[in-house]
Design brief:
With about 350 residues, the chain is α/β, with parallel strands linked by helices. The chain contains 14 helices and twelve strands. The longest helix has 17 residues.
């Protein structure tokens, strides 16, 4: 039997010590804040394995600086994309020894032309890698073709376009998460139920992620409920006009008195929850996405029945890490990395929030 020896990687040390990779990195380079307990755990593992940090020698010896350009939607404080931004900046700080610079640019996720205007000039920045949320499918494919022609690697977060030649993807299986949402929402609804499917209007294109979530939802609806007399009521609302949206939802309930369930496929389900509460329809079953503070508030009030979460911070952080490993350390990385589909409700939300794994 043949045995081989291999120097442990930072991820191996993190696993053995029961801490995050970022914590190991901070201990190795004596920077940043680390709790006494975590530092002792890392030092104990380093002593046991007689570790010397030669793994980083290749990058430390290089004077090259790397610009990672990130394209994410603009957001308001507390929105989903704030988690992404914070994690990108954290990763830039944690992997500073690789001489990387995180350069974040923002586009309007409801306007494809705004995205195109941003990407037109991005190549002039001469990025070493690009991280982007492919909200707009066709526009993203055109942009990533340009990146490939310039031999610039790119990674996706939040949603996936499989035919693009991407380096990594971190995010949910959007189709499967839509299927799960449909199963939760529709499984035991009575016959003759009506279900509100709420979408947000976009200029120029449909969101890539919400498109796949909707397709997963419809797959379950078509395959699992043909024997039921159940109708879907499709409604579009504005991203900015709450007064108009309230009137639209109110009119929808007048025209469809059998509505007893609702779903929206983006992270702003709190808006629909607010409309339902104002209109005294908060007793219907409501499902949405992501762990925003406002969403959690309505979940605890029993206005939202379920939230489907997807660890956005980890998506962003691990993407930066993998690009460092691939571009700088020349290590192999997994291309597709699906994050778990977390189903949250009032009864488990507090424990879920209090037990946050660090990245």
């Amino acid at each position: 039997m043949q045995h081989t020896t291999q120097k442990p990687r930072i991820k191996d040390i993190a696993r053995m010590a029961g801490v995050s990779e970022g914590t190991v990195d901070r201990v190795l380079h004596n920077r940043g804040e680390v709790s006494v307990k975590s530092k002792e755990a890392v030092l104990k593992v380093l002593k046991e394995i007689n570790y010397t940090p030669n793994l980083l020698a290749r990058s430390l010896a290089s004077k090259k600086h790397y610009r990672f350009v990130c394209l994410i939607p603009s957001f308001q404080p507390g929105d989903y994309w704030e988690f992404i931004e914070n994690a990108l900046l954290q990763a830039g700080n944690d992997f500073l020894q690789y001489n990387i610079h995180i350069d974040i640019h923002y586009f309007n996720q409801f306007d494809a032309n705004n995205f195109l205007g941003l990407t037109d000039n991005l190549l002039q920045l001469k990025p070493d890698a690009v991280i982007l949320a492919p909200i707009f499918r066709n526009e993203t494919l055109a942009f990533t073709l340009d990146l490939r022609q310039h031999e610039i690697p790119f990674s996706f977060i939040d949603s996936l376009i499989e035919e693009a030649d991407f380096t990594t993807y971190y995010g949910q299986n959007s189709f499967q998460s839509g299927f799960v949402a449909a199963k939760l929402l529709l499984n035991d609804l009575p016959d003759s139920s009506e279900v509100l499917v709420l979408r947000t209007k976009r200029q120029g294109a449909v969101s890539n992620q919400t498109k796949y979530r909707f397709e997963g939802f419809m797959h379950y609806f078509n395959q699992q409920t043909p024997h039921k007399k159940m109708d879907l009521v499709h409604v579009e609302i504005s991203d900015t006009d709450d007064e108009l949206n309230l009137r639209i939802v109110e009119q929808t309930f007048r025209e469809h008195p059998q509505l007893n369930a609702a779903i929206t496929f983006n992270s702003k389900v709190y808006r629909l929850a607010n409309y339902l509460k104002q209109l005294q329809h908060a007793n219907i079953r409501l499902i949405g996405y992501d762990l925003l503070d406002k969403n959690v508030e309505y979940l605890n009030q029993d206005v939202i029945s379920y939230l489907i979460a997807q660890s956005p911070g980890k998506q962003a952080y691990y993407t930066v890490r993998d690009l460092c490993n691939k571009l700088i350390l020349k290590q192999e990385v997994n291309q597709i990395n699906y994050v778990p589909i977390d189903i949250l409700m009032k009864e488990n939300i507090n424990d879920y929030i209090n037990f946050r794994e660090k990245y």
